[in-house]
Structures
1.
Amino acid sequence: MTETYAHVDDDVRAIVEDYNLPESLRHRIYETIEDRGGVDLEQADEIAHAVSSRYEDSRVEAHDPVGTVSAQSIGEPGTQMTMNTFHYAGVAEIDVTQGLPRLIELVDARKTPDTPMMTVHLEDEYAENRERAHEVVWQMEATKILALGDISTNVADMIVQVDLNEETLAERWPTVDDIDTVAQEIAETIEDALGVDTRRSETLIEFGPDQPSYRRLLQLVEELRDIVFKGLEDISRVVIRKEENEKTDGEEFVLYTEGSAFGDVLSIEGVDATRTTSNNIHEVYRNLGVEAARETIINETMETLREQGLDDVNIRHLMLVADIMTNRGEIESIGRHGISGSKDSVLARAAFEVTVNHLLDAAVHGEEDDLDGVIENVIVGKPVSIGTGDVDLRMGSIEADGGAADVELEPSDD
Amino acid sequence: MVDVSQHELVPEHTLIDEEEVESMLTQYDVKRAELPKIKRKDPALPDEAEVGDVVKIVRDSRTTDKAVSYRLVIE
């Protein structure tokens, strides 16, 4: 951001930049000066100085237990959250897990969320034209046989008949002109998937078991229902919505999917691979890396709290959680199998969950505990190493001339 | 293949040279191994990054406009 302000010249800038302030505060100062119609250098310095001292005051003190404060700050609103898992969210008619279960799912870093979903943005004409948007939908949504036609089982002749609906085929394969080609493709997919021979006339496909067997016949029908003819297996439903585009001030079509296949979707023609997101943090991690995963954790936790009207939780707490979860270059859960379970201290781990197992293992392996952390020291009843508890004081005598006594002060190593 | 770096969730990753690493480590008074990590195979990492390198990450921050962070490339 390098906006130019009419009333902010280089000298004022140099003064403000001299103070160690974050970008956003600097811009606020420039804006204020701008609103006032300019100030002289002395005033600028005064303003910057005042802002700077307020900023320094509000910063976290050294030895502040930020983790504990965050845990409390997220935990307390957590008690007010719904235990209700399902809710039709405002966005489209798609089920999403919300409230406490969702929050737990996020900090536990579950491999797949309960209700995976994606928000797919589209590019150019795909975003403006409903027909084109639908082309993308058909490439994503898993199309099964029931959507394409009717199945009937003829027990007497031991055959399964599939009567394809021409209109549906034309709609779902908009790029193929010839219905016959599509029907042939479907017949081949069935042959490959079920290992049977098919006969086809126009849009009617017939097949049966090699040996007459009632059981096998029913089994074929069951398997037929599960074949994905088009789209991505993981995406069971796609909803199109028209939304306002914040950047262009226009309207665009946005797709919401039930189920997630982030990597596959990003490379589909027409999908805007710069804005599309998934609520599955592991998929984001695999496709976009650890920084994007961190960002997604913050967004998702914030969104979960916001949905419940608990958005007065400061974002810094959620950022801390996301930082810790992605600190080692991959996503780790907070719980016993992740961060808390990999602490150095035996007592700290034992205090968290499954106490006896940890103590037993530690005893078997002859582990030692240096009592550096907070929990360990609470357990043994010693001052904890936070706040003033982390400062070592040494007494010396003051000599008559007012100078410090000749005592060797060793710097504390923590 | 999709260009990962263009995604709005992916901040800018740049490799920094040894000199900059040293001055950053002194500034924050940390050891190299204490930095947050990033995997060598991370999709957002520049191709030429090698294990032991440090990447500078400039995020669009919610609390300040731009936040600078560093990650050490690991196996």
Note: Chain A touches chain B at residues 1, 22-25, 27, 266-267, 273-275, 277, 284, 286-292, 295-296, 298, 315-316, 319, 323, 326-330 (CB under 8 Å).
2.
Amino acid sequence: MESYRKNIRVFLAFFGPTAGWLVLFFFVPLAIIWIYSFGENSSLTTIKTTWTLDNYKRLFEPEIIGLFWRSVWLSVVSTAICIVMAYPIAMVIATASRKAKPWLLLVIILPFWTNLLIRTYALLNILGTRGRLNDLLHWFWNMGHGALELVGLGSLLGEQFEPIVFLGTPGGVMIGLVYVYLPFAVLPIYSSLERLDRNYLEASLDLGASQWHTFRKILLPLSISGINTAAIITFIPLLGSFLIPNLLGRGQVDMIANVIERQFKSANDWPFGSALSLFLLYITFIILAIQSFAAMRKRNQENG
Amino acid sequence: MARKRRDRAGPFEYSRKLSLRIAFLLSAVFLYAPIVVLVVFSFNNSRRGGNVIWKGFTTKYYDKAFHNDSLVEAFTNSLTIAVVSTIFAVILGAMTAVVLWRFRFPLKPVFEGMVALPIVIPEICMGVSLAVFFSSFGLYVPSESPFPLNLTNIIIAHITFSFPFAAMVIRTRLTTFNREMEEAAKDLGATEFQVFRDILVPHMKPGLIAGALLAFTLSLDDFVITFFTSGPNTVTFPVKVYSMVRFSVTPEINAASTILILVTLIVTAVAMRFQSFEEVEK
């Protein structure tokens, strides 16, 4: 690596355009919504920057606190489900044969390359009250009902099959979130398992520990950094997700991004929308800061 | 370790355990079943509520999708945006990667963080801020402008969120570059530009291709940021499908989605092909 001074013209030729682009089309727009977040609508189309804190005060209205609470718990639970599902997948891929490994990875990554809107739309077909999942449940119900009738317990499952309502419920939105973000969780766990020293596992088993005990005391602690990374990179996009709660929640299960969208597209309250967006941005930064702080502390500990 | 078949799975052979295999299989079914259903029902011969009951095989909805002018226009827009923004994203990404790889300069970690920021911030924040930016500076290119120009706002937005990804991929590739080659070329009298064109760029090529494919898929995939930066006459494929889905679920949307899935699959296959070439070259 060389100092930028040694070849300042080449440095500027490469640095200038990228830094310029980033400032103009990324930081300036963010600065504008930052300024707008202290403004108020003076008429339908103009916003006056009065440096008021009203938009931020509105974040503490019960309605908005409820919205945050819903977004956070939906994201936390979905992240947890993603990790629980991702761990066995990662275990299988990490220990598969050299030939099978890239194919198994492809199986997990491929849906991730498919358009998010299409995947959400695909779920819409599945989760409707007359959708495929309820078809399947109906079929099971018929089987169960038939079997129970044979033994004279026909009324146990009720007189008629009641389709489960997924759309417009937190459960349905959660299925969508897990469906979309599961591949995010698999990859970090997989790479931490892949790097792991297998001798520890052999030693544990040789010394008489059970498979379960080895998993809990050796495998899990050794892959904890992968789990942490998985949690962060699934949680952040989950918290800001718009499309899934919008299409699967049917306006009943709004998350932060849905309310932001409404401020800009229909409610026409840009200052409040800006304040909400910045709030979401700050949460993201805080999570990332905590993670890098924890990583730093861990590195210091390892170095003595 | 001896490669003989054992009856019991070994200590770390989780891929041979039945319970884990079933878990993997169930997850794969979970991930693929919705897409498979979507594709199958794009061939369903039923008019309204077509996605409820199977009524026989037909390809008429593909025909319909191909003759739906606004859908075709949206598809053309999406591909145009993806191609143009990919070219710019790769150029900017390569420049970023070279700067970070080659130079020491003050506040470098800050610049590194700035480049990574578009990757981590929530999409909605970026979409909203760009929409506000374009409109408050009067930079909204009118939707009635001639064809590729009317997409300028969306293209700018796509370049902004995809070039950091391209930079990341290209930077990884640069770490394997042997700087002695560069010095040898300079000793033999090559200029700075010749070194760049004849030595550095050929070395970066696999990274440039991988970065381009990533930028292309990201651009095709994006909904949220496009949704905020598009005008009424500059609709991309995802935005168009979104507006159709809001009204109803029809086999035509299934057909159109299947076509896009196919495009994605082809791009992925090409990407994989290039990656395996790269491994052979090593």
Note: The radius of gyration of chain A is 25 Å.
